[in-house]
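Quarterly update, task 2.4: D-malate-bound model.
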Amino acid sequence: MTELRSMRPILNGYRHWLVEAGPSGGLPVVLVHGFPFSHAAWVPQIEALSDRYRVVAYDLRGLGRTEVGDGQYAFESYVDDLVAVLDHLGEDRAVVCGLSMGGYVALRAVEREPRRFRALVLCDTRSGADGNEGKISRAESVRELKRSGMGPFTEAFLPKVLGPTTLGDRPRVVSAVEDMLRQQRVTGVVAAQLAMAGRTDTTESLHAIAVPTLILVGEEDTLTPPAQAREMAARIPGAELEVIPGVGHLSNLENPQAFNAALVGFLSRLEDA
Ligand code: MLT
């Protein structure tokens, strides 16, 4: 079991929950989780990377153990917080790896603060903003969350984020994901929905990404499918793309072995370059 060191700094007015593992002088790798999870969604990656890298995962504001406050924040605040995490760690540049919502944060951060990036890993994510349909469906989700809490949300969300292979063959993954979802606070989940509905589109700046980039996507991901990942890869100079077989939107949890092999391979090539 990897030893996790936890930190609880106040960043941009919110007490954040960070965990760190691995050698403090190692290449820093910052993991940004998806919606609506916490750093706990990265445990298999922390374990795989911590023998060699300074690996850090944190809870986005309002999620996990990071303070929720009044739940009124723009998407840009998550980017402010990522920059504050790097400052807190004393790292000028880091490899940033974001999954889905975490990828939205990473994409906007690399657009705004490109010098803070050593490399980028984009997992099951997209550069496009929400269209009208997406905004309306978030509004419905907010209504339902406020009316009925995390239980019904969790039941509706699970079959969207997990692929059919996981739903059929990996009961332990299904129940671990379900537990993580049920533990979230409604205010933070609603806040994330509203902030994501207002995020900007980063597609036009993909061509300007000037750091090594790896794109990972689950073969069975229907929320951010492989075709979308390929389009994103085609716009980012030199981007590598790997499709993880037999997994849905939560590729890092559904098949950590395959996901970690791709991630570790990318990081090793980065160090050798
Ligand atoms: C996620 O996994 O972070 C979400 O699917 C992102 C979203 O709702 O757009």
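Highlight for this quarter: Strands lie at 5-7, 10-11, 14-15, 18-21, 28-32, 54-58, 94-99, 117-123, 213-218, 240-244.
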